[in-house]
């Protein structure tokens, strides 16, 4: 079997998106009253402080800093489902007693270190294959996954604080890169999870400030394509782009944006795909 092709992504574009979402999170949290750091997020068992602590932990790990020793068996917690979750919870528990302002200072410090390291990284290292959450891939693809993860968590924080993104705040490089990352996974969602039959052509029509079309063709295997070669989609799914990302992340829909989902063509297949959109571990 041939090796899977490695995704090469533009370093300056991805870093602009990653640094932009870090800046957005820091601005969102700056001056936040202490009581709001304990606001419940859409993620089970996590408040705002826990979400930020998780991001601190991931960037610390990528910078070579080991996870702190937990004070309890994190794997026994109800919302922890795998080894990654255990590592996340170690940081969440470690920072839970710190003030929100101190957690924000940690976030700004670790992301400053990561900015420096990523900016200095050579193109060869950026394109080098490394283990990632989506399998062996380029380090650059890994950093696009980081954009997606941090951007999703910004939306989690906004939900917790009842400060949803405006249209202007959704029209960013980080949003577009996050949707690029989601689009790259839609073949897996349509083919493996939803089990769309051979010959299926599924069109996602995303509306709102991050509008785009994502097409998945099933021909032996499911893959994202630029077009259907002049053929019509066999199933269509139309919804707000932010709501699409929430469903892909296994989150509740955002109350501030349209929640309707229009299904067309083979509506049973379209509904099956919607039911299986969540691909986040």
**First and last CA, distance:** 27 Å
CATH class of the largest domain: Mainly Alpha
Q: Tell me, what's the shape? A: globular
Order of helices and strands: HHHHHEEHHHEEEEHEH
Helical proportion, percent range: 40-55%
The CATH topology name of the largest domain reads: Four Helix Bundle (Hemerythrin (Met), subunit A)
Number of helices: 10
CATH superfamily of the largest domain: dinb family like domain
Question: Describe it for me?
Answer:
The strands form two sheets. The chain has a five-stranded mixed sheet with strand order 5-4-3-6-7. It has a two-stranded antiparallel ribbon with strand order 1-2. It is 49% helix and 12% strand. The chain has 281 residues and is an alpha+beta fold. It is globular. GO terms for molecular function: metal ion binding.
Defining key terms:
5-stranded mixed beta sheet, MDMPI_metal-binding, alpha+beta, 7 strands, DinB/YfiT-like, Nonspecific Lipid-transfer Protein, Chain A, 2 domains, Four Helix Bundle (Hemerythrin (Met), subunit A), about 280 residues
In brief, what are we looking at here?
The protein is an alpha+beta fold and 281 residues long. 49% of the residues lie in helices and 12% in strands.
Fold blueprint:
Elements: H1 11-29, H2 48-62, H3 83-95, H4 100-120, H5 123-127, E1 129-130, E2 137-138, H6 139-160, H7 167-170, H8 173-193, E3 201-207, E4 212-219, E5 221-225, E6 235-240, H9 241-248, E7 262-265, H10 267-275
Parallel strand pairs: 3-6
Antiparallel strand pairs: 1-2, 3-4, 4-5, 6-7
Pfam families: MDMPI_C, MDMPI_N
InterPro entries: DinB/YfiT-like, Maleyloyr_isom, MDMPI_C-term_domain, MDMPI_metal-binding
GO molecular function: metal ion binding
């Amino acid at each position: 079997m041939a090796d899977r092709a490695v995704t090469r992504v533009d370093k300056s574009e991805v870093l602009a998106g990653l640094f932009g979402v870090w800046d957005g999170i820091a601005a969102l949290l700056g001056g936040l009253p202490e009581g709001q750091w304990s606001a419940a997020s859409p993620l089970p068992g996590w408040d705002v402080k826990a979400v930020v602590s998780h991001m601190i932990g991931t960037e610390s790990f990528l910078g070579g800093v080991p996870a702190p020793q937990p004070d309890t068996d994190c794997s026994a917690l109800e919302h922890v489902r795998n080894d990654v979750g255990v590592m996340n919870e170690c940081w969440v528990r470690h920072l839970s007693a710190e003030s929100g302002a101190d957690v924000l200072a940690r976030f700004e410090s670790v992301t400053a270190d990561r900015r420096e390291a990523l900016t200095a990284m050579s193109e060869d290292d950026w394109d080098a294959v490394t283990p990632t959450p989506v399998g062996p891939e380029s380090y650059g693809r890994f950093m696009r996954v980081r954009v997606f993860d941090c951007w999703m968590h910004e939306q989690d924080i906004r939900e917790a604080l009842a400060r949803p993104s405006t249209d202007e705040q959704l029209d960013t490089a980080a949003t577009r890169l996050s949707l690029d990352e989601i689009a790259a996974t839609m073949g897996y969602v349509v083919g493996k999870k939803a089990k769309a039959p051979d010959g299926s052509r599924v069109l996602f029509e995303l509306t709102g400030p991050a509008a785009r079309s994502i097409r998945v063709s099933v021909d032996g295997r499911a893959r994202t394509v630029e077009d259907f070669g002049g053929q019509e989609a066999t199933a269509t799914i139309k919804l707000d782009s932010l709501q699409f990302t929430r469903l892909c992340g296994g989150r509740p829909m955002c109350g501030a944006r349209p929640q309707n989902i229009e299904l067309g063509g083979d509506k049973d297949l379209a509904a099956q795909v919607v039911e299986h959109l969540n691909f986040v571990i």
